Amino acid sequence: MPVLASFFILQRIMSSSEIETHNVLIDTHAHLQLEHFDADREQVIQRAGEAGVAAIICVSTEVASSRQAIALAEKHANIFAAVGIHPNDAGPAGDNDFLEIAELARHPKVVAIGEIGLDYYWKQVDPATQARAFVKQLELAQKLDKPVIIHNREAGEDILKILQGLAITQLRGVFHCFSEDMAYAERVLALGSHVSFTGNLTYKKSVLPAVAADIPMEKLLLETDCPFMTPMPHRGKRNEPAYTAAIAEKLAALKNIPASDVSRLTSLNATRLFALPDGLLP
């Protein structure tokens, strides 16, 4: 079925009176395992539920945080894990680290490999080392048939070159914390990838609203990237999954549709991409 036709059918389904009463959110990128949440992690999770967040994906940056994400997912039915080695952590990562990521990735609550990619902003790890880590984990995702969560910071062209080099013409994944222009977004969408924005979408001087407005709803996800990238009007505070609603509201304003529609449609997108369990959404 053509994408446009399937999307219109999806819209009709989601406007039914049975689902209209629900406003559910999925935070597809959080770092709740970090020390920033050690003092009140359970309260943060509770606040997320009270704010309508039905599920949270805890995304990792190296082996230790991957283990912690899984432990958190084991404790909470609505939390899931992504495991992987971030480009800024690729320097000290050895063969045993990648072997452990491959083993952890087989855990039933691991729904993605991530976050992986390239970061040329911080210059903590040389590009060649980052690229090797990225390729290894892309290949792992293909082997395990799991989606990828891609980190791109000032390395957009090299990321696409690596995907091309691996003959990846259809990418099951998401470019998270998107910060490129619409021309780049079109290339990402042509690969079949999803796109997500964080608090960066809400900042007063951001040029991203014009990009987000043109990305089809069926390719958008919501995320906080907490504890970082806090959205307006909460900027200056620690970010947390409860603030996913702020991203949904901004997208709704850009799309000129109700925030509840953004919440439902992006939640369906996330459920399908990450193969989240049936019954998660009402």
Overview in brief:
This protein is an alpha/beta fold and about 280 residues long. Helices cover about 45% and strands about 15% of the residues.
Q: What general outline do the C-alpha atoms trace?
A: globular
CATH class: Alpha Beta
Output the strand order for the largest sheet: 1-2-3-4-5-6-7-8
Biggest sheet architecture: 8 strands, parallel
Q: State the secondary-structure class.
A: alpha/beta
SSE layout:
Layout: H1 3-14, H2 17-20, E1 25-30, H3 41-50, E2 53-59, H4 63-75, E3 79-83, H5 95-104, E4 110-119, H6 127-144, E5 148-153, H7 156-165, E6 173-175, H8 182-190, E7 194-197, H9 208-214, E8 220-222, H10 244-255, H11 259-273
Parallel strand pairs: 1-2, 2-3, 3-4, 4-5, 5-6, 6-7, 7-8
Helix pairs in contact: 4-5, 9-10, 10-11
Features:
11 helices, TIM Barrel, 8 strands, disordered N terminus, single chain, 16% strand, alpha/beta, 8-stranded parallel beta sheet
Describe the structure.
- There is one protein chain.
- The chain has one domain: TIM Barrel, CATH 3.20.20.140.
- Strand 5, helix 7 and strand 6 (173-175) form a beta-alpha-beta unit.
- The protein has an eight-stranded parallel beta sheet with strand order 1-2-3-4-5-6-7-8.
- The chain is built from eleven helices and eight strands.
- Helix content is 43%, strand content 16%.
- Mean pLDDT is 92; it is low at 1-22.
- By secondary structure, it is of the alpha/beta class.
